[in-house]
Design a protein that fits this description.
mainly alpha, two-stranded antiparallel sheet, 22 helices, 2 strands
Length: 496
């Protein structure tokens, strides 16, 4: 709980600082934007309901149905009021109300472990929305503070990789509209795919009354919070803007995807003040890699879906001209480094994990330095530097596979429980939702304990009957260790 409190304080401080910086540039920050959606029209209704879905993993099925009903009812009321007033119509206020209500009820009506569980669920839902708002604020700051972009450097370095964005762009043009239609769905619905995988990993929270030590949502949020900071260091807008029609008057020329750009004498390119500098590294690639990694522990269908989304996302980022090939290599290294650090913060650090984080950080810094300071050299010797760039990325992938081998990214499914544990504990349900409340202690007392037998008497009876006692013979409920007992081999520490 101390770790969660510290993480919450750091996150809040970061959001406040970002709000102050955004105000200094004349627009509202993530705190203001999220607060407005309590009453005013939400920007993204599906995102708010995704946050509600994450919060509901701590609720029972009855509570989930009531929470959805309350959210839908609030949204209907808002919809009718906006329709009558002639305002823009949207949905999502109800989902945010329920998530905030769960947080308030956790503070006022829950105690101990149940309070912590509900607050974690509400915090996870709010962080999903705040992460999206934070990313939007970061992008506005990059466009305001970085008047020039470094696309000419990355485009030159991309020659060492064979100009994959230009190749995929021509391929999609030749296979449109089928290929473009499929890839638009894959690219746009990456958050939905991640939400489904995250909910699958958190499916047992309501039963186990605890979160797994590590899950997909944690890494997704960290990537979204840290990635835009790199945009400030290495501002790039992408081929479709710097060398394509979407760049308008600020584009170098309308070259993408038919004509390769020149590689000699790259210089910073002055650009507009509204296009986000969101290419280096490719966060879509980083998120798709993380999704792929976390689906490895799922069913065969989930593994196939993770692979499909990874390949589709990489193809879309290149084929639509949103990224260079160099961006993708940086995104892969960025994702695996953060995934290792986040996972080890939950499961514990070891020497191989520390080496991997150091290696990933060094390779990431080396890639960005090479793109910025020696792009012409990379383009002049593609036969040498192209394989070296891929080999450096492959080294991080290989080190990650070796480090992560044998370590599940999802908490193991608990084994069979004793009779008292098999009863799912009732949870104090939000009174504002019209639920009957009952403390977990009351639920535990409602289970009548089996009659205790004296171990010595049992052994004596077995001897009298001529059946020797064995280690496998059943013990009394009083002498048997439960999974919560400190000495039990199945004892599980509480995961935060």
């Amino acid at each position: 709980m101390v770790l969660w409190t510290a993480a919450g304080a750091v996150t809040l401080g970061f959001l406040v600082a970002l709000e102050i910086v955004a105000r200094g540039y004349g627009f509202s920050g993530p705190i203001t934007e999220q607060s407005r959606e309590v009453i005013f029209k939400p920007e993204s209704g599906p995102l708010l309901y995704g946050g509600l879905a994450l919060t509901m993993v701590v609720l029972t099925w009855r509570q989930r149905l009531i929470a959805l009903g309350v959210a839908a009812g609030v949204d209907i009321v808002f919809f009718l009021v906006r329709w009558a007033a002639g305002a823009d119509l949207n949905f999502g206020n109800g989902a945010l109300w329920v998530v905030l209500g769960c947080a308030v009820l956790g503070l006022t009506r829950r105690t101990g472990r149940e309070r912590a569980l509900l607050l974690k669920g509400a915090g996870l839902g709010l962080l999903l929305v705040a992460g999206h708002k934070t990313g939007d604020t970061w992008l506005l700051i990059t466009s305001e503070t970085r008047p020039t972009v470094l696309d000419a450097y990355v485009a030159a370095a991309d020659h060492a990789l064979g100009d994959p964005s230009w190749m995929m762009g021509r391929l999609l043009e030749a296979t449109a509209p089928v290929s473009t239609g499929v890839l638009h769905v894959v690219y746009g619905q990456l958050p939905l795919a991640a939400a489904l995988v995250g909910l699958y990993q958190l499916r047992r929270v309501a039963v186990d009354r605890r979160f797994p030590a590590h899950h997909l949502v944690r890494t997704f949020l960290v990537i979204g919070l840290l990635g835009p900071a790199i945009y400030m260091i290495f501002p790039v807008v992408g081929p479709i803007f710097a060398y394509g029609a979407d760049g308008g008057a600020y584009a170098v020329a309308n070259l993408w995807p038919d004509t390769l750009p020149p590689v000699t004498g790259p210089q910073p390119i002055p650009f507009d003040d509204f296009t986000p500098r969101n290419c280096m590294p490719s966060l879509h690639t980083a998120w798709a890699v993380t999704l792929f990694v976390h689906t490895r522990q799922g069913s065969r269908a989930m593994r196939y879906a993770g692979t499909f989304w990874l390949v589709g996302t990489l193809s879309a980022t290149l084929g639509f001209g949103y990224h260079y090939g160099a961006d993708l290599l940086a995104g892969v290294v960025f994702a695996l480094t953060i995934e290792t650090a986040v996972r080890c913060s939950a499961h514990g650090w070891n020497r191989s994990a520390v080496r991997l984080v150091v290696l990933g950080s060094a390779v990431f810094a080396a890639l960005l330095s090479a793109y910025r300071w020696m792009p012409v050299e990379l383009a002049a010797r593609p036969w040498l530097y192209g394989p070296l760039l891929v080999l450096a990325t492959g080294t991080v992938i290989y080190a990650y596979v070796r480090t992560a081998r044998g370590q599940d990214t999802e908490a193991p499914v608990p084994g069979p429980r004793s009779a008292p544990e098999a009863v799912e504990p009732a949870v104090m349900e939000p009174a504002v939702m019209g639920l009957a409340v009952m403390e977990p202690a009351v639920a535990a007392e409602s289970v009548e304990p089996t009659e205790a037998a004296d171990p010595a008497t049992s052994i004596e009876l077995r001897k009298t009957a001529g059946s020797p006692s064995s280690p496998e013979s059943p013990e009394s409920p009083e002498s048997r260790e439960t999974p919560e007992s400190p000495g039990s081999p199945d004892a599980r520490p509480e995961l935060v």
